[in-house]
Amino acid sequence: MKRRFIVVPNLLAALILITAVGLSFLESQEIPRGESVYIQGFGKPTVWHPFSPSVTGGTMQFLYNQLFYYNPMKDAWLPWIAQGFEAVDRRTLRIFIRPEAKWSDGRPITAYDVEYTYYVTTQVKLGPGAGCWDYIEYIKAVGDKVVEVRALEPVNYFQLVTCSLGFAPFPKHILEPVFKELGTKIAEWRNDDLEKQVVSGPYKLLMFDDTRIVYHRIDNWWGRDVFGLPAPKYLVLMIFRDNPTSAAQLEAGLGDWNAFFTPAIWELFEKGIGTWFDKEPYYIPWGAYTVYINYMRKELSSPELRRAIAYAIPYKDIIEKAWSYYSMRASFSLVNDYFPQYREYVNVDLCIRYWGTADCRPATDLERARKILDEAVIVDRDGDGIRELPDGTELSGLTLAVPYGWTDFMVATELIVSNLKKIGIDIEPHFPDFTVWWQNIIDGRYDMVLAWIPAWMGFEHPWNMYRASVDPRLPPPSGNWARYNNPEVPKLIDAAATTADPLERKRIYSILQEIIYRDVPFIPTHTDPHWYIYDTRHWVGWPNEKNPWWTPVRPHDVNSITILFGIARKGETPTIPRWTKTVDEGGQLIPSAKLYNEFAKVVTPRPTPTPTPGVTTVTVTAVQTVTTTSVVTSTVTTTRVDTVTTTKVETVTDWTTTTLLAVVLLIIGIAVGYIIKRK
To answer: 358 versus 27: which is more confidently predicted?
Structure first.
């Protein structure tokens, strides 16, 4: 197949410049190249805490870790700061923090850190657990090392699990005095004092300026006896404004781990560069890119106008010319039907009715776009080539914005703008700096933007896509970037997560899909490739399709810290950590099925010799290494996990035994394994 891509001007000059800068940096800072993983990043340093919309790269990946990490390829959870969980009843989950878990200043990580972190999040509406208040009654400490998370009725199991296991605590003894002083202005706090910064992860800030951020490994990190230590002693985040500079650095061997768009990536394979697949599409489709049309702009609120724009998007050209065949068409259903297990969620009849295709991927058709506008009386009344709305408002002076330097986005924007002009919509490309572009999305100061839906593959797909894209309860940047406001949507989103019947869930998804097709709050253009690029010239052992010891992880993903434990310096033999296997295989990964089984067990009625009204005796079976009634994994070395099965009989008061069938069906509906399969 002939590949077409954009040739970057002056690439050689950029290459020479960045090579000189990189070598100068290495020399002046005396950071050994062989002990450093270089990461391409973007966005200047701002703050090193999660209570701000502009968090510095690496903060929540390398400095502040989660209780558990989710591996979508194995549909399993890795206990990290926590060591296990226990379902107390059908709406309450307890998390047990590892006894050895400590902050970098030596103080223990406790349940009170989790509780206070969530409290601050609820006050500033940003931070770990943002949005959980719609589904969670409380997150609180019930002991020094025990966190309890209780769901609201009706129970949303997707959110209960996410808000519990995926939580990243912040040290209360550091946060509390700062929040008491600054309150909701905590975003002004930088947390960049090298002496005072306290973290949970194996890295800490060493130095930074406007061109790079350096983190150094904490060799006495609390988790070294559980997980070992990550291989690199230093992580160097090089900050670039554009893709060409990043590509030049990558080609020169000055970047080990990359999530930037790189044209013709296949041409770099002979230099030691790799991606997950070694042929098209090179990257796993992970999410969706869309054109967001701001609902706050009155002149853009017409569904007919939005539908016409959908038919004017040059989808094929975007994939070929802007994304070098790295992507595929995205479905308006928001279902990642690349994976067979999710295709059943697409209502084919609705796709045909609204878009004329069975997969909800409308064809580019300028004549049809013009006809839709004509029928909506959005016509050119004065003959200047620009259409006016029925009230006379001219469709001019509009912009489609993407960050400057994101060359793939910029090319796609030019292609879209060109086609929209052909149907009488006067729109110009707008390329602000990333920080300006991002703030405009947060504040709603834009006409149209090309961006991603802030949700990706996970155990709750496609529910999380609808939640992130059209739920008005989520403020940007947490979700709903288009600012769509339909009061029926939250009810449907909640119902889909609480129903026990998989057929009912599919029916609800169909209703959500029809709302999206009818109102067109955004226009999905193409899939969001999981931009995972690695270089083997300095570090080896990176996972890929042929060596899938771990999921592909971009450096800015929340679970990216995990990949650093399985790589090795060039010339050394990498060792795959034992904890990357499931508990059944002798590792620490807990399959999602075990999690849902915990909920089933606490509501399973068992007859007792002397029944007592209102009391049910249940049996809780746990895989554990400590004395609790929970699913727990723990290690005392970096390579072995000893597990035993115990049984404990508890007596609990349960007035809702009729929910047994519902929970059992829930398990069937959502405990689906994540299968990676090439087409």
So the answer is: 358
Q: In the structure encoding, which two tokens stand for residue 445, read together?
A: 């100061």
Quick one: pLDDT band at residue 459, thresholds 50, 70, 90? confident
* HSE-CB of 31 using CA atoms within 13 angstroms: 23
Residue 456: per-residue pLDDT: 78
Helical ranges in 397-553 per DSSP H: 407-422, 434-443, 463-470, 488-498, 502-519
pLDDT of amino acid 203? 98
Question: Which amino acid makes up residue 532?
Answer: Y
**What is the three-class DSSP state of 644?**
strand
Percent of the chain exceeding pLDDT 90 equals: 66
Most trustworthy range by pLDDT among 97-106, 455-464, 608-617: 97-106
Helices 407-422, 303-312: crossing angle, 10 deg rounding: 110
| More reliable by pLDDT, 375 or 661 | 375
Q: Show the CA angle centred on residue 163, arms to residues 159 and 166, nearest 5°.
A: 120
**Lowest mean pLDDT segment, chosen from 14-18, 119-123, 236-240, 580-584:** 14-18
Mean pLDDT of the chain: 84
Contact 336, 527 (CB under 8 A): yes
Indicate the helix (H) or strand (E) that contains 112. Answer: helix 111-124
Of residues 577, 489, 539, the one with CA closest to residue 295:
489
Dihedral over Cα of 138, 656, 77, 86: its sign: positive
3-class DSSP state of 451: strand
Residues 597-622 as b/e (b if ≥16 CB within 10 A, e otherwise) read bbbbbbbbeeeeeeeeeeebbbebeb
Q: Residue type at 123?
A: Q
How do residues 83-109 score in pLDDT, each as one tens digit? 999 999 989 999 999 999 999 999 999
- Asked if 238 and 212 touch (Cβ cutoff 8 Å), the reply is yes
Place of tokens 């202005």: 185
Distance, in Å, from the CA atom of 664 to the CA atom of 123, rounded to the nearest integer, reads 36
Neighbour-count burial for 317-338, b at 16+ CB within 10 Å, e otherwise: bbbbbbbbbbbbbbbbbbbbbb
What tokens were used for 631? 């699913």
Structural domains in the chain plus CATH codes: 11-64+201-281+531-569 (3.40.190.10), 285-529 (3.10.105.10), 586-670 (no CATH)
**pLDDT of amino acid 632:** 52
Please check whether residue 90 is in contact with residue 83, taking contact to mean a CB–CB distance below 8 angstroms. Answer: no
pLDDT at 258 over 70: yes
Report how far apart, in Å, the C-alpha atoms of 35 and of each of 215, 230, 235 are: 12, 11, 9
- CA–CA separation, 22 vs 19, rounded Å? 5
Nearest to 18 by CA among 260, 238, 261, 283: 238
- Surface-to-core class of residue 662, CB atoms within 10 Å of its CB (0-12 exposed, 13-18 middle, 19+ buried): middle
Dihedral in degrees, nearest 10, Cα atoms 409, 414, 418, 420: 40
679/305 Cα distance (integer angstroms): 35
Per the CB < 8 A criterion, the answer to whether 444 and 296 are in contact is yes
Nearest to 32 by CA among 168, 200, 217: 217
How far apart, in whole angstroms, are the C-alpha atoms of residue 461 and residue 573?
Answer: 36
Handedness of CA 379, 381, 386, 388 (dihedral sign): negative
What is the predicted pLDDT for the residue at 675?
33
Kindly tell me if the per-residue pLDDT of 622 is higher than 90. Answer: no
